[in-house]
Write a structure and sequence with these properties.
Number of strands: 45
CATH class: Mainly Beta
Number of domains: 1
Helix content: under 10%
CATH superfamily: TonB-dependent receptor, beta-barrel domain
Radius of gyration: 28 Å
Strand content: over 45%
Oligomer: single chain
Largest sheet: 22 strands, antiparallel, barrel
Distance between the termini: 38 Å
Structural class: mainly beta
CATH topology: Maltoporin, Chain A
Shape: globular
């Protein structure tokens, strides 16, 4: 079977539903010769590939034996990149976000959000086994991918060209994560690692006690809202909890005293931050029955890591960034990051039918302590008698949790196939006891004081709670054509309902009768808010939740969708896949106060891809489509949100509208050898009403981020990727007989520009403004890097597990926020500079007491590349965030039984 076109026809004939995911989604990509096959994937034989379709119109397993075109990327009708379990293992990344940043055109920004071809995470679609996922991040609808440990995933697909079987919210691409499948044999894998970095481990950091179970990522009830205050919140509606008809001074004192003010407020210095460690356990078994096979797979993982950042943080209110910054702080932030995850999968194969039930639990917690020293000139502006010098401390606790259960039935009846899929997912984010204290330097006493009344002297606490449920179901039917016309016809229906509730209640400690005396005002936070002081000096809790936006909101998104699609072989090496999707969507955000949002729209979304195999090992693709991008709930809700990564506050804009995208791509591909290729592509996107993150100044000169629709944007670019294997047996000697060098390289050049005029848009502060005042004509889209490059060089053994891999990643500067407007003048945009990063990963297999062992050594960020986020105007520069990023090293050991 040397003819690649003939093999492609066999693939089509063997497929019940030929969808993009059908050639990718299962973990069971072939185990390469450089390591033992993953026993959790059903892969057997010299050249066999199992490809399954959980997550999109599905296909039966395909077993292909041949010498040419075993490349899954080539066989798909769409433009895809596939990370198999072997690819993920080679990079050594602990979560899938880290592994995905090696894929052509992808970059990871912030807390695990993947950008595809320069389009922000809001233009990316994340699926788990083809089903939608809710996000535990209140600012995002897309789930942060650093939540997903690579140990529970079998593969990941990135599809960059749209096809009608996928949801219409498709901008840069879709990322389909596939969990591990039923094993072919009983296995057990136990692993652990220890790690540290040059900036954090063994160095100074800050933490606080919290609760007894913090080390496990759970709170023991210490951070629960006290019962009395919780009842008051529930009964208050939109009425603030203040002294008056409903609450006495004694009530408000009682609320203040009922809070756990010692365990959550006392920041502690740790001069020897501990090392990071992790452990994981994966096992599975299967057995044959009279009509098929039944199997179970389970996985558990735990990681506990620390990160300290010594950050320079500045802001300026001058349009040219001239003069002394408005604020400047040196802030030491220590994050204790704990992740617990579990997976339970049950599956059965009955004749030609497959059934699967997958359950996933991920809990990700960040405990953060921070201390800041610097100045804020607005203190002097409010009270000229006070100096601007401030000392601030914050203690935070961020819980993110995801529970997902999915059921799939893949039914095969000769030429007819039916796929049924249902999922329920719940995500939660709780941030209880968001505490902040601000002390102002007093030259009178020669110390920092906090009298709870003067400018720059305050104590605040906030409670945030988000809950989101996703209900989704779909049915797909396919029919194979095997007459004169070869191909597959597919059609399907999908239902998706997302429901979110979000609350944030903020309170201030204050004295209604004036400032505290200087002696009390000098006390540290836990003494300052002691029960004695609260009752002796009449310290009360004041509700300020509705001062800036809504305290709570409910949000819903309901989508009904149907599609039809055909993939046909036209002969002479020509294939065509075309289809159209209809989506009817209603999105609402209902706040407890202020403007709400109700967007109800329907779309027809066509997609067409043409593939021409003009040579035995070459093909050319053309693709075009129309897609949409809807505003995220958090972009619509006028509610304050503190992001622990960027250390900025965000708020929404209820007047945002949908974005429409028009996509085109052309690609040449050369598959010159097994698992080796060279490809070159060009792409273009036109976006109507793109949503851009835009900074603005809130009260007191606080820099905050909001959102606004720009009139139009265009994005275009080119990418090249190559994979080449170099056998080293020609060097002679037994050592090189089984060795090879693997080179994987890719580069993406992207250019984007906003097209704006003087039309009126609603700005992030909800004021109407001319578009060319808020946005600069020709400015790049937020999140878009002009240059993204990756290089992997791996020296490895083809007969046993032995690898040394060098990973070089580069991303050029990109805009994170549009610059704020001062009067009629606009400040420069806020820019992030990722720069170069060099990693080394070594993996070695060996036997110990008859057990297969794997040793992994990692060295990350050997370039010591710092993090920089700044504004620049000529020679003037303001650093919003600048800090060193340590060189990290880890040692891991895994036993496979």
């Amino acid at each position: 079977m040397n003819n690649p076109l003939a093999l492609g026809r066999i693939l089509l004939l063997s497929t019940a539903l030929m969808s993009p995911a059908a050639l990718l989604a299962q973990a069971a990509a072939p185990a390469p010769a450089d390591q033992p096959a993953d026993r959790s994937a059903a892969v057997q034989g010299e050249e066999q590939v199992e490809i399954s379709t959980l997550g999109a119109p599905a296909a039966r397993d395909i077993v292909v034996t041949g010498r040419r075109q075993q490349n899954v990327v080539r066989a798909t009708p769409q433009v895809v990149s596939v990370l198999s379990s072997a690819d993920i293992a080679r990079t050594g990344d602990g979560d899938i976000a880290g592994a995905l940043q090696r894929v052509t055109g992808l970059s990871v920004v912030g807390n695990g959000f993947v950008y595809v071809r320069g389009l922000g995470d809001r233009y990316s679609l994340a699926l788990l086994n083809g089903s939608p996922l809710p996000s535990p991040e209140p600012l995002k609808r897309v789930v942060p991918l650093d939540l997903f440990p690579t140990s529970i995933l079998a593969s990941s697909l990135v599809q960059k060209s749209y096809s009608a079987n996928y949801p219409g919210e498709f901008g840069g691409g879709v990322i389909n994560l596939t969990t591990k499948a039923i094993p072919t044999e009983t296995f057990l894998s136990i692993g652990g690692s220890i790690a540290g970095d040059s900036v954090t481990t063994g160095n100074l950091g800050y933490t606080y006690y919290g609760s007894d179970y913090d080390w496990f990522g759970f709170d023991d009830g210490t951070r629960d809202i006290p019962r009395g205050l919780k009842t008051a919140i529930r009964n208050s509606g939109t009425t603030p909890i203040v002294q008056g008809a409903n609450y006495s001074a004694q009530d408000l004192q009682g609320f203040a005293a009922s809070l756990n003010n010692a365990d959550t407020a006392l920041l502690q210095r740790n001069r020897n931050i501990p090392a990071n460690f992790s452990a994981d356990l994966t096992g599975g078994t299967s057995f044959d029955t009279d009509s098929g096979r039944v199997g179970v797979l389970a996985a558990f993982g735990y990681s506990n890591s620390w990160r300290t950042r010594d950050v320079l943080q500045q802001s300026s209110i001058d349009p040219d960034l001239a003069g002394i910054p408005q604020t400047q702080f040196q802030t030491v932030i220590t994050d204790n990051h704990v992740t617990v995850n579990g997976l339970l999968g049950l599956g059965a194969e009955v004749n030609d039918h497959k059934f699967r039930w997958t359950n996933l639990f991920i809990r990700d917690t960040v405990k953060q302590g921070r201390l800041s020293a610097g100045y804020n000139r607005s203190v002097e502006d409010q009270d000229p008698t006070l100096p601007a010098s401030l000392l601030k401390q914050n203690t935070y606790w961020f819980e993110r949790q995801l529970i997902d259960t999915q059921g799939v039935a893949e039914l095969r009846f000769d030429k007819l196939s039916i796929d049924l899929r249902g999922t329920y997912a719940n995500s939660q984010r709780e941030s209880p006891y968001e505490r902040s204290f601000s002390y102002n330097y007093s030259p009178v006493v020669g110390d920092y004081v906090n009298n709870l009344t003067s400018a720059g002297q305050s104590a605040d606490i906030a409670f945030s709670d988000l809950n989101e449920d996703v209900y989704a179901g779909s049915a797909d039917i396919g029919y194979k054509l095997d007459g004169a016309l070869k191909g597959t016809l597919t059609a399907g229906y999908a239902y998706n309902k997302t429901k979110r509730t979000s609350e944030r209640y903020q309170f201030q400690f204050f004295r209604p009768t004036g400032a505290l005396n200087q002696g009390v005002a000098q006390e540290r936070p836990d003494f300052l808010l002691s029960d004695y002081n609260i009752y002796t000096y009449n310290i009360q809790l004041r509700d300020v939740s509705g001062a800036e936006g809504s305290r709570a909101y409910d949000a819903d998104l309901v989508i009904h969708a149907g599609y039809g699609q055909a993939e046909i072989e036209l002969g002479n090496g020509l294939r065509i896949q075309g289809g159209v999707r209809y989506e009817d969507a209603r999105q609402t955000v209902t706040p407890d106060a202020g403007s709400g949002t109700n967007i109800s729209k329907s779309y027809f979304l066509p997609a067409l891809t043409l593939t021409y195999n003009f040579n035995d090992d070459m093909q050319f693709r053309l693709a075009g489509s129309k897609t949409v991008a809807r505003p995220q709930f958090r972009e619509l809700a006028r509610q304050i949100y503190q992001d622990f990564e960027s250390d900025r506050q965000f708020t929404g804009n209820p007047f945002l509208t949908d974005s429409k995208l028009y996509n085109a791509e052309a690609r040449w591909e050369w598959y010159f050898d097994r698992n080796q290729r060279l490809s070159l592509a060009g792409f273009y996107k036109k976006i109507d009403n793109p949503i851009e993150a835009s900074a603005f100044f809130a009260g007191g000169g606080v820099l905050r981020t909001g959102f606004a629709n720009a009139p139009e944007a265009q994005l275009y670019g080119a990418e090249i990727e190559a994979e080449k294997h170099f056998p080293l047996d020609s060097l002679g000697g037994e050592f090189f007989a089984t060795k090879r060098l693997v080179m994987i390289a890719n580069y993406t050049w992207t250019k984007s520009k906003l097209k704006v005029d003087d039309s009126i848009v609603i700005g992030p502060d909800l004021s109407p403004v001319a578009a060319n005042t808020l946005f600069r004509d020709g400015a790049p889209l937020t999140g878009q890097s002009d240059h993204i490059a990756n290089l992997q060089l791996s020296f490895e053994d083809t007969e046993r597990l032995s690898q040394i891999t060098m990973l070089l990643n580069y991303a050029s500067e990109r805009v994170t926020n549009r610059g704020p407007i001062q009067g009629t003048l606009r400040q420069p945009d806020i820019i992030e500079k990722p720069g170069f990063r060099l990693d080394l990963v070594g993996r070695q297999g060996f036997k110990l007491l008859g057990t297969d062992m794997e040793l992994k050594v990692e060295a990350r960020n050997l370039t010591g590349t710092p993090y920089k986020e700044f504004q620049r105007a000529g020679s003037n520069i303001i650093y919003l965030n600048r800090y060193k990023v340590g060189r990290s090293f880890s040692l891991g050991l895994t036993a496979n039984f």
